[in-house]
Amino acid sequence: xxxxxxxxxxxxxxxxxxxxxxxxxxxxxxxxxxxxx
Length: 37
Prior knowledge:
This protein is mainly α. 95% of the residues lie in helices and 0% in strands. The protein contains 1 helix and no strands. The protein has one helix spanning 2-36. The longest helix is centred in the middle third of the chain and has 35 residues, at 2-36. It is rod-shaped, with a radius of gyration of 16 Å.
């Protein structure tokens, strides 16, 4: 059970990290888009 719990936490961390990366990319795209105009 402990192993399953640990792996679930790691998966949650990975997903949250992916969300952070996608939001960061969106912010960067917005910044570059604004500078281009």
